[in-house]
Structures are given as structure tokens and as C-alpha cells.
């Protein structure tokens, strides 16, 4: 900006109309502009000035800043904003110590803060963007017994990185505080999250404090003690907080980012786009599961209760499980919860189980932990259980068997890709023998063989509840298929059977064909991709002539050629039951 430009501006903006000035000499060009400004304007004419801000100041401009101190001396500025603290305390504050009442700075240490309080006896409000502990430990300790400063009434710290012992000393300097605003990201749980710590400190050291706003956050880490949102907020429910001070705090567990946030309502500052929170209100012990959508800092645009929560792959751990359990004790809207690969552990599992016992809403749960199976018998709201691709093995199958024998509400069990075979499959079928509620069983891709099929056939002969059975992608041979279809001739409930991708060949198709006229309940049968060829197609075609129940049949992917296709076509012409037939 040239001198002519500055003069041109002055024609339209008289100095006495200016209420705020910001100086910054981060580069040479900016420094020249400061010189130009000072040479053009008569600082005595800035009668309306209320705010003066100093950016990065260096030695070359100190003479000019000393001149600018006269502006402060002339006017009751509110506020003064600056960054080069040490120099400005020495050269600007001391000459005007009886004038300044409000200062806002970018960075401040304990020693600098104490020096400001000592230099400005009339300072009432102090605001700092970042507060750290770069001071020497000995300096802090030696000053701990120094005088206190009663002039400051309002303290605002936006990013407090001080350890708790330094933060305590920081606050001890100003026992007459009336307003305190404190925002502090912490690395781990600590005293700042404890309402009893603050209660005792305020009652003894900050007796005049009338308004306390805070925002504390820490990341949840595995292998550290669990502090649930309920246990944290409980320390803020005492008469001191609720009745005496009327300070109401909220504690959130931001589930997907694994953070605990403790805050007062006026400065809720999370700027994530979508948050799933376990929120506890200070007036009672009820937790809520909600979704917050925000457009930025302090701009919440929508809040809604959740009916579906998918946390697949998020390591929420025991902490997350505990807080979700607190939610489920009272939640009446959530009906689907996906906890696959969430590492909730034994303790978290127990908490969830207890909560589900007391939740009256029928719920679908997707979970990958075998240990849940130990407790399924006690979860009387569980209707669907998905445990896919977890290799649950023999031990998991034992737990599952116990659950199947005792659970009275489970309707659907999905166990794909779990290598349930041999001994593990025996445990599973033992549990199924005593189950009277399960209607859907999904056993896809479990390497189930002929011996396993024999055990399952024994279950089917006596089972009165199972409606859908999916055995696709296993290792059933012709003998295994024979066991199953023979059992279905004595079963009156199973209506859907999926045997695709077992490659049992034409012989297996023959066993199906032999049993089909005697099966009266089955309506849907999938025999695709089993290499039955033309010979197998002929067996099925002959059986369709006597079919009385089957309405949907899938024979696709069996390499059936023209002759086999013709046999099937002839059979379908005389079949009045089948209305859906798949063939390729």
C-alpha cells in the first residue's frame, strides 16, 4: 500500500471513526506499511479506538510499538490483543499499567501470566489461546508461594496443555475469579474429569466463582481403566453443582472416534460432521444414544435418536461396551446393533448382556465375539444373531450349544464362514435338538461333510420350528444329501432348503428325486451348481411328476444339456405346482 493509497483511505474513514487496529510485521513489506501508517495518522485523533491487536513484532519495529503504547495510554482499550508477549510486557504494559483491563494473547506460560498480573493491577479479563508449561519446573515451584492477584475477575483459556499440578498453580494466582472458561484436551483420564476435584478446589480456592464453563476431552486407550460416562457425570450431580451453582455438565462418548468429552452446554465445540454419542444428562442417570450432525464449531443442525447403530470394525473396547450397555438399559428406539470386530472383551460383554436382559425392545445384534454365546441364554430380547467369518471352532460351538438350549427368543442364527464341522458341528446339533424357537439357520461355507449332515438329519426329524436352512457352499456328498432329504420326509416345518454349490453330482440328485414325492412341506429348493448334469436332471424331472409341494426350484449352473433340458420341460408341462423354475 502506497502513501497515496493511505491518504485516499483517510478521506473516507476518519481516524475518530476507527474502533479497532491490528498491527503485524511478519515481513518487510508489512513493516513498511506500519511505518507509513504511523507517519500518516495522528494517533491523538483515534478517539473511538476500543481494540488494539499486535501480531508478530520484531526488533525493527519496537520503536514504533513504543509510540503506539501512547494510544493505550490515551484510550480505555477493550481488548488488547498481542503475541510477542515478553517484549510488550516490558515496553508497553508498564507505562500504562493503570489503564489496561482486558488482554487477549495467543500463547502464555505460567511465568508470563504471573508477570502480566504483577504488571497490570487493574486487569480484569485475561484471554489466552494456548497455554503450555515451557517454564522451568524450579521457576514454577519457587513462585508457588508468591503473592496472589485479586484484580482479575475473568479468565479464558482455549487450549490448556498444562499438567494438572501446573493448572492448579495457574488458578491459585487469582482467587477472586468470577468467570472461568477452560478448554483442555488431555492425553488420558485425570482429575479435570472429576467433579469432586473441582468442587473441593472451588469451595476452598475460588470462592467467588459464579460461572464455570469447560470443555475437556481425552482419547480412550485400551488396557487402561474404564471410566464410563455415567461414572464421570455422577461426580457432577452433587448439590454443589446442581443446587448451589446451577452448573450442568454433559459427558459424551464419541463412539467411532473413541473419545470422552466432558463439557458444559454453552461451549459444546465438536466440529465433526456426524457424531454418534452416548450422552448422559446431569439431572438423572439416563444415557441416550443420539446422532449429531454439525456444520462446524458450535453449529449443531440436527439431533436424532438412532434405530440402527453399525460399529463394525471400530475398536470401541470395554469402555464403549460399558457406555452402550448404559444406553441399552433404557433405550426404546434402537433395534439393530452391529458390534462385529469391536474388541469389547469379557467385561464389556458382561455389561452388554446385563443391559439386554433388561431391555424390552426386540433387537437384532450382529457380533463377532464368541463369548457372547456364553450369555445368549440370558438375553431374552435377542431375536437375530449374526456371527459371520469368525472361525468360532469347537469352543465357540460349545457356547453356542448352551445358548441354543436355553434361549427362548432367538429366531435367526447366521453362522457363515466359521469352519463348523466334525466335533464343533456335533456341539451345534446337540444344542439344536433342544431348541424350539429357531426358524432360520444359516450354515453357509462351513466345510460341512457327510457325517455332519447325518447329525443334522437327526435334528430335522424332530425339529418343529426350523423354516429355512441354508447349507450352500459346503462339502456335502451324495451320502450327506441322502441323510438330509430322508429326514425331510418326516419333517413338516422346513419350507426352504439351499444346497447350492456342494457338487454332490447326479447321485445326490437321485437321492433328492427319490425323496421329493414324500416331502410335503418344502416349497423352495436350490440345487444350483452341483454338477448333476443330464443324468441328474432326468432324476429330478421324473420326481416332479409326483411333486405336491415344491413351488420354487433352482437348477442353474449344473451343465445340463439339451437332453436334460427336454426332460425337465416335459415334466413341467405336467406339473401344476411349480411357478418358479431357474435353469441355465
From TrEMBL:
Ribonucleoprotein among keywords: no
Keywords from the named record: GTPase activation, Leucine-rich repeat, Repeat
Pfam families: LRR_6
One of the GO BP terms on file: nucleocytoplasmic transport
Record's GO cellular component terms: cytosol; nucleus; perinuclear region of cytoplasm
GO molecular function: GTPase activator activity; small GTPase binding
SMART domains assigned to the protein according to its UniProt record, in alphabetical order: LRR_RI (SM00368)
InterPro entries named among the record's database cross-references: Leu-rich_rpt, LRR_dom_sf, RanGap
Gene3D superfamilies given in the database record: Ribonuclease Inhibitor
Protein name: Uncharacterized protein
The species this protein was found in: Adineta steineri
Amino acid at each position: 500500500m502506497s502513501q497515496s493509497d493511505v491518504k485516499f483511505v483517510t478521506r473516507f474513514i476518519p481516524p475518530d471513526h476507527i474502533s479497532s487496529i491490528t498491527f503485524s510485521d511478519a515481513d518487510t513489506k508489512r513493516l513498511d506499511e506500519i511505518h507509513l501508517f504511523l507517519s500518516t495518522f495522528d494517533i491523538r485523533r483515534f478517539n473511538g479506538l476500543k481494540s488494539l491487536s499486535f501480531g508478530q513484532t520484531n526488533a525493527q519495529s519496537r520503536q514504533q510499538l513504543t509510540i503506539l503504547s501512547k494510544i493505550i495510554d490515551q484510550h480505555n482499550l477493550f481488548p488488547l490483543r498481542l503475541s510477542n508477549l515478553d517484549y510488550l510486557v516490558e515496553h508497553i504494559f508498564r507505562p500504562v499499567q493503570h489503564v489496561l483491563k482486558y488482554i487477549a494473547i495467543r500463547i502464555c506460560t505460567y511465568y508470563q501470566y504471573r508477570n502480566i498480573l504483577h504488571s497490570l493491577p487493574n486487569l480484569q479479563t485475561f484471554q489466552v489461546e494456548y497455554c503450555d508449561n515451557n517454564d522451568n519446573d524450579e521457576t514454577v515451584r519457587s513462585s508457588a508461594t508468591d503473592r496472589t492477584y485479586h484484580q482479575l475477575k475473568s479468565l479464558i483459556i482455549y487450549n490448556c496443555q498444562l499438567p494438572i499440578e501446573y493448572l492448579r498453580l495457574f488458578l491459585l494466582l487469582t482467587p477472586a475469579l468470577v468467570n472461568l472458561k477452560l478448554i483442555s484436551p488431555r492425553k488420558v483420564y485425570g482429575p479435570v474429569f472429576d467433579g469432586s476435584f473441582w468442587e473441593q478446589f472451588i469451595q476452598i480456592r475460588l470462592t467467588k466463582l459464579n460461572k464455570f464453563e469447560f470443555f475437556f476431552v481425552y482419547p480412550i486407550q485400551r488396557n487402561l481403566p474404564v471410566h464410563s460416562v455415567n461414572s464421570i457425570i455422577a461426580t457432577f450431580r452433587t448439590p454443589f453443582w446442581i443446587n448451589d451453582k446451577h452448573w450442568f455438565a454433559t459427558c459424551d462418548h464419541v463412539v467411532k472416534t473413541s473419545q470422552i468429552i466432558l463439557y458444559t452446554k454453552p461451549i459444546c465445540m465438536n466440529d465433526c460432521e456426524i457424531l454418534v454419542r452416548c450422552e448422559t444428562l446431569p439431572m438423572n442417570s439416563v444415557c441416550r444414544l443420539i446422532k449429531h450432525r454439525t456444520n462446524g464449531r458450535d453449529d449443531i443442525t440436527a439431533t436424532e435418536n438412532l434405530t440402527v447403530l453399525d460399529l463394525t470394525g471400530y475398536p470401541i473396547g470395554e469402555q464403549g461396551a460399558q457406555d452402550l450397555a448404559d444406553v441399552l438399559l433404557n433405550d426404546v428406539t434402537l433395534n439393530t446393533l452391529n458390534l462385529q470386530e469391536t474388541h469389547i472383551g469379557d467385561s464389556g460383554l458382561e455389561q452388554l448382556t446385563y443391559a439386554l436382559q433388561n431391555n424390552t425392545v426386540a433387537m437384532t445384534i450382529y457380533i463377532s465375539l464368541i463369548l457372547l454365546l456364553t450369555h445368549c441364554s440370558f438375553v431374552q430380547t435377542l431375536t437375530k444373531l449374526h456371527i459371520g467369518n469368525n472361525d468360532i471352532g469347537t469352543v465357540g460351538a460349545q457356547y453356542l450349544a448352551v445358548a441354543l438350549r436355553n434361549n427362548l427368543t432367538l429366531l435367526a442364527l447366521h453362522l457363515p464362514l466359521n469352519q463348523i464341522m466334525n466335533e464343533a458341528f456335533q456341539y451345534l446339533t446337540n444344542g439344536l435338538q433342544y431348541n424350539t424357537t429357531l426358524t432360520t439357520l444359516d450354515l453357509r461355507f462351513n466345510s460341512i461333510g457327510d457325517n455332519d449332515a447325518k447329525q443334522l438329519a437327526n435334528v430335522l426329524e424332530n425339529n418343529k420350528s426350523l423354516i429355512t436352512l441354508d447349507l450352500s457352499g459346503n462339502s456335502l456328498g451324495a451320502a450327506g444329501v441322502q441323510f438330509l432329504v430322508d429326514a425331510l420326509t418326516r419333517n413338516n416345518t422346513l419350507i426352504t432348503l439351499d444346497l447350492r454349490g456342494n457338487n454332490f453330482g447326479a447321485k445326490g440328485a437321485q437321492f433328492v428325486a427319490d425323496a421329493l414325492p414324500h416331502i410335503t412341506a418344502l416349497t423352495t429348493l436350490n440345487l444350483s451348481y452341483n454338477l448333476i448334469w443330464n443324468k441328474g436332471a432326468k432324476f429330478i424331472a421324473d420326481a416332479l411328476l409326483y411333486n405336491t409341494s415344491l413351488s420354487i426350484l433352482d437348477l442353474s449352473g449344473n451343465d445340463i444339456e439339451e437332453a436334460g433340458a427336454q426332460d425337465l420341460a416335459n415334466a413341467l408341462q405336467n406339473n401344476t405346482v411349480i411357478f418358479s423354475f431357474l435353469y441355465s
